[in-house]
Amino acid sequence: MGDRPITLESRLSKSILVIFSVYPSEKHPYISDLFDEVFQDQSVDMFCFHRSQQDSYHRSGSIRPGRKFFKTKGFFNFGRWIGLAVFLLFSPVRFLKIYHGFPKDQRKLSAVLFFLYSFFPIVRRKYDLVYLNAFQLLPHFKTKAIFGESQIKASLRGQDFDLHPEKYRPFLTWIDELHVLGNYQKSQVAELGFDERKVVVINPSGGRGVLSGNHEMAKKTGEVLLGSVSRCYWTKGHIIAIRAFKQIEEEFPDARYMIIGTGPELDYLRMESIRLGIADKVIFKGWLEGELLFSHFLAFDILLHLSIEEGFNNSVIQAQKLGIPCIVSNKGGLSENVIDHETGFVVDPYRLEEVVGSIKKLMADEQLRSDLGKRGSLLAESRFSLEDQVKAYKKLLFS
Which region among 13-22, 88-97, 178-187 has the lowest average model confidence (pLDDT)? Predict the structure, then answer.
């Protein structure tokens, strides 16, 4: 597996369906940068799972000649119902496989028919390969039979699998080859009985969107700025960072903490900063993207990412590429992002005194911040390059 040479003929001869969780855009540059390179001369069909984003995908500029993009349609699309009727008439065996593949508690004719209607563009075509950019999408497809005899490959991402691994165990049996972000995730799926020979480790690159230049130019005189860039979700550890910041702000009165991101915990985090009396020093910037995101990124002196569970993390890679030292938790795969005491600090997020001590050490020593940042930049450029990621993906998908 993977030893055959990758030729232009082998790439163009495959019929491929790519299923995205979110459409590639400036909001997700690590997706758009990667797939623009991987599929630049490849004709592929694409399907974005979240209907609310499908029209936006068309506006994003990712549709090119030779690419088909499928959308779900409203319930009263007459043409699709006609197509489904023809499918049922001429493919009864396939229909029965899909019907009997449904979970027993959902196996109702009306539910199966509506499911087939929603995903009819996928069902009616035959593909050599179906690739899902997020393994966690598989439960939504109910049964492997929807993909027929296609080879299935997927990328494992994020906290859904971390929090509910048993939920996803049955869907590992669908997979012919699984891409994971690091060795931590590889060990996770191995513990669930997945064949390690079918696992491919491809580290993320953080995309190509990192600004070049000297980030010292963006800093305010006398101010030390800590920052976090991630969704405001309870597993991301923002609450730990805010409470740690409270313990250092008296010793470092010019310090500020900026959170870039939004999510369900945003109001809770605002209230916690008010409760602790540091609301004037904790800055909530909301969701930023593209150049605006990186212009704020450049001002950071230290990046905090104290997740209690994480497969890997793009913002840590991006920060290191900018020469910003990182303090990350020792949970999940974050210790694969940062080398402790060489490119940053790896701490136990449940030991607040350890977190506070690491922050104080970096706050007090500008030279240490610079040294760790430089080594982190060298590490990120050598280990997390877009070029290497693209080569690995091409091998995964086309060999």
Answer: 13-22
